Here is the input.
Amino acid sequence: MRSGISASEALAAVLEATPVLGSETLALSDALGRVLAEAVASDRTLPPLDNSAMDGFAVRRADCAGAGPEAPVVLPVAFEVPAGASDVSDLAPGQAARILTGAPVPSGADAVVRQEDTKRTGDRVAIHVVPDPGEHIRRAGEDVQRGETVLTAGTRLGPAHIGMLSSLGRSIVAVHQRPRVAILSGGDELVEPDGDVAGGRIVSSNSWSIAAQCRELGAVPVYLGIARDTPSDLEARFRAGLAADVIVSSAGVSVGDRDYVRDVLEKIGCRLHFWGVKMKPGYPLAFGRVGDDERGPLVFGLPGNPVSAMMTFEQFVRPALLRMGGRRDLYRPIVRARLDETLRKKPGRMHFVRVTLERDGSTVVARSTGNQSSGVLKSMIRAQGILLFAADAEELPAGSVADVQVIDPDFLAADAPGF
Amino acid sequence: MRSGISASEALAAVLEATPVLGSETLALSDALGRVLAEAVASDRTLPPLDNSAMDGFAVRRADCAGAGPEAPVVLPVAFEVPAGASDVSDLAPGQAARILTGAPVPSGADAVVRQEDTKRTGDRVAIHVVPDPGEHIRRAGEDVQRGETVLTAGTRLGPAHIGMLSSLGRSIVAVHQRPRVAILSGGDELVEPDGDVAGGRIVSSNSWSIAAQCRELGAVPVYLGIARDTPSDLEARFRAGLAADVIVSSAGVSVGDRDYVRDVLEKIGCRLHFWGVKMKPGYPLAFGRVGDDERGPLVFGLPGNPVSAMMTFEQFVRPALLRMGGRRDLYRPIVRARLDETLRKKPGRMHFVRVTLERDGSTVVARSTGNQSSGVLKSMIRAQGILLFAADAEELPAGSVADVQVIDPDFLAADAPGF
Here is the structure.
């Protein structure tokens, strides 16, 4: 087990140990946002037939020669083709057929004239334009050819993918499983939100923020409750989490006498990869895996301070959970931001500074959210970004530019639609 | 009713008619992503007591005068303060107290020396540093003062907010309701995904993509199925949607004979605000509201072509649904992108061009997804952005720069964590 490693060494160790989960088969209505675990080929041609893109009249172009706004060609309307028609007559020379959007183009027709360019009187229609070849006809197979691979494994399913899968008749799809994350917190001072806080007790808020962090990225939290500060209770709760893909424990990973976590982890067969990352907040982060093969759950022992717990989840657990679910884009958007104030620290640990972000023309201005104590959850509430202050750096002067991970998606939203 | 209006006129009309929905009361575990409908004040002080930020020893600074790495001050360890302790002794002059992270600081102590800077032998501890005043002590109220308004109405709840609400004992919160969206499609050629597509029938994929678009932004789709092309069936399905906040119908808004939608809308008391927007894809978009007061559902009649339906939802229904749910950030992120090819069109309609996006150093390059036919759903699957080609423009030359709405959130994800 390593100790006192850098944040990037820690992330590399986590990702190296993180498997992509296997697949599950879902109803299409439940598949939004999930990652395809199969390639999808089409069993059909789309559209299935040449069909009309407009309401209007199917014609033979040759019959419209010379037509113009003031000089219509008048044709008899031989029949009508509604959408969904299955038995369509052929269009003979010198005829027009009334046709609706989506309806199959009759054999013989080579263009559709839209209704706005015609004038119908009884069973005859005046055509006022010469259509281009194939105009307003959607060709069979224009969208999808039979046998074509339409979606590849690894594709994240957005609304257009769901629509496409439905149009291929795929009401069931195979996607990567969502990671199940067992969450426990430990400490005799902790109560649930409805608990009595007399005598300095506090709510086990880490479990709530961590469960929400899991939900936000599509993982399934399984909350195992508050462990009392005894080895037996802690062990029982860890064992209850062994069926999950990941166990996240907050508290119990610092150096104090009552931190039995290490012993308990050993008892349940967890091999630790590292303990202690040169970062602030969040130094006392532990990571390991239960068992020797790829099947045991990953174990993250997060620090107990509210901000440290959220920050270490954000930097290490989040990318691991995304990868487990088959995602390839594991990281937050990064903006280059101008510092509004000078930041100073001792070299040695990388600082993850909670900042607000504001646009100033084309630049982004970052300001510390204030008290950066790892106990001050309010700094996390206000934070729109996490400014990266490198381990060996000592000063970031006001006006200098730094990378900021954007954690507030609303910051990226535009103020106007662009039109 | 207006017709042939611009996209921005259409959006303004939609948003003017869109109410913010009322509140509902939710368990905290269901509130992630929702918008607070109440201000939340704290009934408690957080942290409740001065407590230790580290495992170590509580001391009086005066007793540590002159301590250094080679010259420790040795103090007796008078007692121990575990986390969650409620009855803590006072620290007398000349004493140290063993203290764990989160445990209350004993009266009399004015700093905590972290364990790493001490060496304990039996009931005595050697202190190797002189702590700063208050060092490693988290002050009562440092995070939240009793009575303080911690969250304001209108706040979107992220993981940190959920954690904070839990720490305030708020296991129940009032948030804005999610809009319920009744979805129907119409056309005799349509079947469900498990239906028989012989004879040129196609799947009613619009309902599936629209339902997914609703889910993606947190709205609740209520799928009313496929209406046959008869006025009575269409009317029955529209009436089934009257209890929803929004009705979205795809198909049945073009000019054809069988488009009974207008008559049906009139029958159910829908007053149309506009019909026809100068855009491509998506011209035949209709918008109105049922009833004269603010209680009737909004009605969107989307065009039937798959891309037109998704695009008009994206531009008009999406911002309306976000506003209904209490959101203030209604628009996609916009990037300025360099065009990889020349785009041309006739003036008159604004074009929403589906593009892929690629980073080239600090610039973003946009490429058309190819066939921009409104029937080609594949163009929507590939699209990472929607390039805005203004109504009165005729050409966007290769190399020029245009605004692109980013619809693929993964495009914004960074390739690396930034450290």
About this structure: Chain B has a mean pLDDT of 93. Chain B touches chain A through 125 residues (CB under 8 Å). The longest strand of chain B covers residues 350-360.
